[in-house]
Amino acid sequence: ADTINLAVIGGDGIGPEVVAEGLKVLDAVSDAKVERTEYDLGARRWHATGETLPDSVLEELRGHDAILLGAIGDPSVPSGVLERQLLLRIRFELDHHVNLRPAKLFPGVASPLDVARVAPDGIDLVVVREGTEGPYTGNGGALRVGTPNELATEVSVNTRFGAERVVRDAFARAQARERKKLTLLHKHNVLSYAGHLWRRTVEEVGAEFPDVSHDYAHIDAAMIYLATDPGRFDVIVTDNLFGDIVTDLAAAVTGGIGLAASGNINPDRSVPSMFEPVHGSAPDIAGQGKADPTATILSVAMLLQHLGRDEESARVEAAVAADLAERGSAVRSTTQIGDAIAARV
Ligand code: IPM
Ligand code: MN
């Protein structure tokens, strides 16, 4: 049988707990031999050594087929240190430009929306968030800090190259789906330069996909649509920061952050892509067996699909769907949920 060389970063808080369940399901479903290497990265290492992501570790990560990440972040570490030097550094260095975040309301899952009224045909959308540009590039600075004349900039970087590759990826994903619809979210009435670049890119790339329809919504109006008519969305493409925000709301309306999976994807399979739940490290419930591992397990399904193991991926998603359909209000522990889903694959 083939082998999946997997780098595992449990990370902080509930990260290691949910990752353990993801690995349990991966072992249960896959014919491949899963060779894993665990990397101790996150708050513990930073406190102990001052290191976030040593260059040697980054080089080792490159040698894997994929990376499974739990969560990064801890209140004991200054804000931004682990986020920028560890999580974003991996995304940037491995050129994870397609940040893929599906949001699907599974049968039996409660939504805060009155779904029967606002989404009678269900919610099944995927956000293709650009992952390497926008205001995330760290292109900014501050002057006269702490004075009444303080000034701060945080420049959003948008290249034609960066927009075009993610827009083309999003069109291809839309083409493979039933509704074949793509929506660009931006704010071109105010952010004219970047907005114009993105709109033109969608128009031009869209011509290569005549069977895919496309439209546009301002990001603020899109928040209203997500709450009042989420069924209108199929594939959403947007920049890094808008994508960060829209995916939290998309998760909220499809059962919450405990179910939201993501892939930080470099379509070049010779570079490892990284799969992680959208949620954070939740230090308040760490170590108590309360975390829902479902988002991590669905991230494992995305990992399998990315590696071309579509059948195994579909089995994981079906097992999650079956578990969610029967879940009801019974409180189960992290391992109980992982066991139940592993037993179904
Ligand atoms: C996410 C997170 C990260 C992001 C943070 C932790 C850097 O919010 O994965 O959505 O903004 O991308
Ligand atoms: Mn986020």
UniProtKB/TrEMBL annotation:
Pathway connected to this protein: Amino-acid biosynthesis; L-leucine biosynthesis; L-leucine from 3-methyl-2-oxobutanoate: step 3/4
GO molecular-function term, one example from the UniProt record: NAD binding
The protein's Enzyme Commission number: 1.1.1.85
Residues that bind Mg(2+): D220, D244, D248
SUPFAM superfamilies attached to this UniProt entry: Isocitrate/Isopropylmalate dehydrogenase-like
Domain Isopropylmalate dehydrogenase-like span(s) in chain numbering: 5-341
Quaternary context: Homodimer.
HAMAP family per the UniProt record, alphabetical: LeuB_type2 (MF_01035)
Name under which the protein is recorded: 3-isopropylmalate dehydrogenase
Biological classification of the source: Bacteria, Bacillati, Actinomycetota, Actinomycetes, Micrococcales
GN (gene name): leuB
